[in-house]
Write a structure and sequence with these properties.
Length: 152
């Protein structure tokens, strides 16, 4: 399942990437290119824009909630998504690229010193070069995920 989100859903786009979904973010106003991209890449459109034109073969999910946790819940429920833990943290939050493992000695000058001292495993985005590790950031993400009511 692949998605494309319209510009008012930037935070939801990041969350879908954290959960491992191929999620494009469309931050322009021109809706015609959005529809072309959705059809070409077979992406489901997630939007809060009620005036999005329907087109043959297009799947649009209208997100009603305003709060981010509720939006994640709503998206998963509407799309009947079952989360797979091994998919989580597999994509770059910023650019949607699949992450790759990087050796610890290669990140020495790229992460804060305390992170380098305390962490062993690092992954990186081959496209934007951002480096990720399982520190407090991921801990916070997991905590938020636990607060989301997946099955209610
Ligand atoms: Zn990236």
């Amino acid at each position: 399942m692949k998605f494309i989100l319209t510009k008012e859903l930037g935070r939801l786009a990041k969350w879908l990437r954290i959960l491992g979904f191929d999620t494009a973010y469309y931050n322009q106003d021109k809706l015609s290119s959005l529809i072309i991209q959705a059809l070409r890449d077979e992406r489901i459109i997630l939007t809060r824009n009620q005036r999005l034109p329907q087109a043959r073969g297009l799947k649009i999910v209208l997100i009603k909630n305003e709060k981010i946790k509720k939006q994640v819940e709503e998206a998963l429920k509407t799309l009947k998504i079952v989360l797979e833990p091994e998919m989580m943290f597999s994509r770059c939050i910023l650019c949607n690229t699949k992450l790759a493992v990087i050796a610890k000695d290669k990140v020495k000058d790229k992460v804060p010193e305390y992170v380098f001292k305390t962490q062993e495993d690092f992954i990186t985005c081959p496209k934007c070069q951002r480096i990720y590790w399982q520190g407090t950031h991921w801990g916070n993400v997991r905590k938020t995920l636990e607060e989301i009511k997946w099955n209610s």
